[in-house]
Amino acid sequence: MNKDQWIDRGLLDAFDAEGTDAHRLCTIDNGWAERFGHDILISFRTTAARDRLIAGLKEWAKSVDFPIRRVFARFLPKKNEERETPKLLFGHEGENLQTIATEHHLKFGIDFGAGYSVGLFVDQRENRRFVRQAKPERLLNCFAYTCSFSVAAASAGAQTVNVDLSKKSLERGRQNFVLNSLSTEGHKFIADDVRPVLRRLARRGEKFDVIILDPPTFSRTKGGEAFHVESDLEELIVAALELIDGNGWILVSTNCETLNEQALERMARYGLKLSRRAGVFHRQPTPLDFPPGAAARTIWLTLR
User: Fold this and answer.
1) Which residue range is the domain that position 263 belongs to?
2) Are residues 46 and 156 in the same domain?
3) Count of domains in the chain?
4) Which of 96, 111, 136 finishes a domain?
5) Helices 194-203/229-241 angle, 10° precision
6) Rama region for 119: left / alpha / beta (φ>0; ψ in -120 to 50; rest)
7) Across-strand partners of 301?
8) Whole-number Å distance between alpha carbons of 154 and 146
9) How many Cβ atoms sit within 10 Å of the Cβ of residue 274?
């Protein structure tokens, strides 16, 4: 899919056939449009990009006969603290701001009123598919947010440990389990900073088949300690390597624009050297609804 191009009817039908109604619709230089069921979220850096996406959306919906329920928009600020909840542009104001989206027939709760992020990062779809196909026994989900990776793993029989600072996000993760008729028994939800949790798990000798490292670009713990992905991700990879079992997998992912896949691989190689372990790298295919470079930068490290 090329930039400035809305997905065609064929790709839309392919998504519907595989049980997916959460995906990117269009990407332009300063924004994008995404689908969550019959609701649309427009993300923009400039008002010109917003207006262009709104006009394009109307034309696209008419050309493919797509029924739009509501359209929300959110501004993409440079600083995290300036993030705002999406605003309703079109649709009934009195309707519930919560809905359900599906991905490969798995259900995920979406909430347009809960904050800047609505509950599911669609650019991680192929990585969640990989987790599901890998069928791990135990998955550690760091910066778990609403636990979408854990739902994918649990649907294939895995037990999971989910770590996130936000109790509200983890509660939404529990609800995602319930949406998919998955018991939360055997799954842990830990509202804490990832770094001390990794140390505690290592002291207890716990091991995992798959570890998900998809941290925010910047965050701050309840105690005020800052996390910067550019300087602190390497430390997380080293800590994760102590917890990976046998020939397991570690996903390293970021939306930080100053880090590319090569930088992630260098960090991972440094961690391998420190831990005296060997591994190989691979990347899942770029989702068909994303132009090159528009999705999160990700690598999979497979331990040997």
Assistant:
1) 122-303
2) no
3) 2
4) 96
5) 20
6) left
7) 250, 281
8) 14
9) 12
Residues 215, 229 contacting (CB under 8 angstroms):
yes
Residues in the chain, pLDDT under 50: 1-3
> How far apart are the C-alpha atoms of 4 and 69, rounded to whole Å?
23
**Residue 210's pLDDT is what?**
98
Q: Are residues 242 and 283 in the same domain?
A: yes
Predicted pLDDT at 227 = 86
pLDDT digits (tens, 9 = 90+) for 242-276: 999 889 999 999 999 999 999 999 999 999 999 99
Same-domain check for residues 78 and 186? no
Q: Helix or strand or coil: residue 124?
A: helix
User: Alpha-carbon distance 19 to 36, whole Å?
Assistant: 12
Q: What is the CATH number of the domain that holds 36?
A: 3.30.750.80
Q: Is residue 115 part of a domain?
A: no
My answer on whether 80 and 191 are in the same domain is no
Give pLDDT tens digits for 7-46.
999 999 999 999 999 999 999 999 999 999 999 999 999 9
Q: Are residues 52 and 196 in the same domain?
A: no
Residue 4: the pLDDT is 63
27 and 3 in contact (C-beta within 8 Å)? yes
Q: Based on the domain organization, do 135 and 22 belong to the same domain?
A: no
Look up residue 129 and give its two tokens: 């598919």
Cβ pair 138, 57 in contact under 8 A: no
Is 107 contained in some domain? no
Residue 46: count other Cβ atoms within 10 Å of its Cβ.
13
Helices (H), the chain: 9-17, 47-64, 125-134, 148-154, 167-179, 194-203, 229-241, 261-275
Domain-embedded: residue 42: yes
Q: For the whole model, what pTM was predicted?
A: 0.95
Decide if 201 is inside a domain: yes
- 234 touches 275 (CB < 8 A): no
